[in-house]
């Protein structure tokens, strides 16, 4: 990971790249490049030993013209104001790409959760939820999990909000445990949309996914499910996987489900008996495979690395895994990159289904969730490729932004300016 590229500048560059292909005024476009508001707050949290520790936390609400702000909450030492702003903007364009009625938001706390007990993390999360309370709610802003947060944190946020508001409002957050109003299929949803995007991409490009070799960088929620579904449902040959500890490789294919069990048991992919060799995780990115799925963090691939990528197709599971320079290099090299705002939109799409179910107080079956998700992703894929073919957009990312910007700009135009 380069760490040198400001993700907010990446987002703005992506919008600028698309600007030439949309008929939107410069003033509107400028508005669509900046968040509406960003909360920055200092949380005071009691540690188990009685001391008080301070944490910096953010929530960015980027644009609400198409519906409530929507987006995850990240716990990571590298969380920054600009990262949160960028991630909230990507949510706007992601929701618009798959045409679900949400704006975009994102939050984060500067923390390495591995250094804290569950009780400390609960107090931290409840302190954060208390700060967020005036800003969030089922009709305002709906948080969800992101890196290092999951059902547990969502349940704490929901409970804090409901207690302070003296109500029941499960649609305040998504990604909850099923027993607390979570949706069937939510945990798998991001990986499932990555798999669906890969399936559609290979079909669109006239290639056979069942013959393909695949490398997946990052083996968390997004990467591990994507790898398993690409293996099990598409029959592709997943030959390499990595996590922050390094990469594992087997040219004959890895048993992804068994690798997951190994990771759950030992905390790392390293030492998995089904691998024939291990190497540094950067080497995975340049392997000679048909499909590369970056599923770790942003800026994993910079311009220099992009020169050495051998895959023909990249499907982005992570948010912003390519720097703008890497994007340019891969476009010049005719590598087909299917962007994050389509490929990983399954998470927010099933979050939307969860919110709909919460509002209806009626739970869908997993089969219904997966069928609706497939419909949303394949429709979005078809719209994206149609835009690509009809606008001369240089790559699929720009085509996705063209589609999304048109939709957001139309809603902004219809809303007008208040007062
Ligand atoms: P996670 O914390 O569950 O997993 C992250 C994985 O990346 C871990 O396996 C970690 O070991 C690995 N990793 C970190 N640095 C690495 C490196 N340098 N090389 C290789 N692996 C590395 O997080 P997640 O929820 O899977 O999210 C991953 C990405 O997907 C993020 O960009 C996130 O914003 C995006 N995303 C996630 C969801 C979701 O529903 N979880 C939805 C949309 C987008």
- What is the overall shape? globular
> How much strand?
15-25%
Structural class: alpha/beta
Q: Uncertain runs with pLDDT below 50, 5 residues or more?
A: none
Taking all residues together, what is the mean pLDDT?
Answer: 95
Number of helices: 15
Query: What is the second-level CATH architecture of the domain at 189-343?
Result: 3-Layer(aba) Sandwich
Query: Over the alpha carbons, how many angstroms does the gyration radius reach?
Result: 20 Å
Biggest sheet, open or closed, and with what strands and sense?
7 strands, mixed
Q: State the name of the first-level CATH class of the domain at 189-343.
A: Alpha Beta
Task: Name the ligand types.
Answer: nicotinamide-adenine-dinucleotide
Q: What letter string, H or E per element, gives the SSE order?
A: HHEEEHEHEHHEHEEHEHEHEHEHHHH
Helix content: 40-55%
Biggest sheet: strand arrangement? 9-8-7-6-10-11-12
Describe the protein's topology.
Blueprint: H1 7-19, H2 26-31, E1 37-46, E2 52-63, E3 69-76, H3 81-97, E4 104-110, H4 118-132, E5 141-145, H5 151-165, H6 186-204, E6 213-217, H7 221-232, E7 237-243, E8 246-249, H8 256-266, E9 277-279, H9 281-285, E10 291-294, H10 303-307, E11 313-315, H11 324-332, E12 336-338, H12 340-343, H13 346-360, H14 366-391, H15 396-415
Parallel strand pairs: 3-4, 3-5, 6-7, 6-10, 10-11, 11-12
Antiparallel strand pairs: 1-2, 2-4, 7-8, 8-9
Helix pairs in contact: 1-3, 1-15, 3-15, 4-5, 6-7, 6-13, 6-14, 13-14, 14-15
Bound molecules: nicotinamide-adenine-dinucleotide (NAD).
């Amino acid at each position: 990971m380069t760490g040198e590229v400001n993700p907010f500048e990446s987002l703005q560059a992506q919008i600028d790249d698309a600007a030439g292909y949309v008929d939107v005024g410069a003033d509107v476009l400028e508005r669509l490049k900046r968040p509406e508001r960003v909360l920055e707050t200092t949380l005071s949290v009691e540690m188990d030993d009685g001391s008080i520790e301070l944490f910096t936390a953010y929530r960015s609400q980027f644009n609400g013209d198409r519906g409530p702000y929507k987006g995850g909450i990240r716990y990571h030492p590298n969380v920054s104001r600009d990262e949160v702003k960028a991630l909230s903007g990507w949510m706007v364009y992601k929701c618009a790409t798959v045409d679900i009625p949400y704006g975009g938001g994102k939050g984060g706390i500067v923390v390495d959760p591995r250094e804290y007990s569950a009780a400390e993390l609960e107090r931290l999360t409840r302190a954060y939820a208390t700060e967020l309370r005036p800003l969030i709610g089922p009709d305002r802003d709906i948080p969800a999990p992101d890196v290092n947060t999951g059902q547990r944190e969502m349940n704490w946020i929901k409970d804090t909000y409901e207690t302070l508001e003296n109500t029941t409002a499960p649609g305040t957050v998504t990604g909850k445990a099923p027993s607390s109003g979570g949706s069937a299929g939510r945990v798998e949803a991001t990986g499932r949309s990555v798999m669906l995007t890969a399936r559609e991409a290979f079909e669109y490009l006239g290639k056979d996914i069942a013959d393909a070799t695949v490398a997946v960088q990052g083996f968390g929620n997004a990467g591990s499910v994507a790898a398993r579904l690409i293996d099990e449902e598409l029959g592709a040959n997943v030959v390499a996987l990595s996590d922050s500890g390094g990469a594992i490789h087997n040219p004959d294919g890895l048993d992804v489900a068994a690798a997951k069990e190994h990771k759950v048991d030992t905390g790392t992919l390293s030492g998995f008996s089904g691998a024939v060799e291990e190497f540094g995780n950067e080497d995975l990115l340049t392997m000679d495979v048909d499909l590369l799925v970056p599923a770790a963090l942003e800026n994993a691939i910079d311009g220099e690395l992009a020169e050495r990528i051998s895959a023909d197709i990249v499907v982005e599971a992570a948010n912003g895994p390519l720097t703008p320079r890497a994007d340019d290099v891969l476009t010049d090299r005719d590598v087909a990159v299917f962007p994050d705002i389509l490929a990983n939109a399954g998470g927010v799409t099933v979050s939307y289904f969860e919110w709909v179910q919460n509002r209806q107080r009626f739970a869908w079956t997993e089969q219904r969730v997966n069928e609706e998700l497939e419909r949303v992703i394949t429709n979005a894929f078809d719209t994206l490729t149609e835009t690509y073919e009809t606008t001369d957009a240089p790559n699929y990312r720009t085509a996705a932004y063209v589609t999304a910007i048109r939709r957001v700009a139309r809603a902004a135009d219809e809303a007008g300016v208040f007062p």
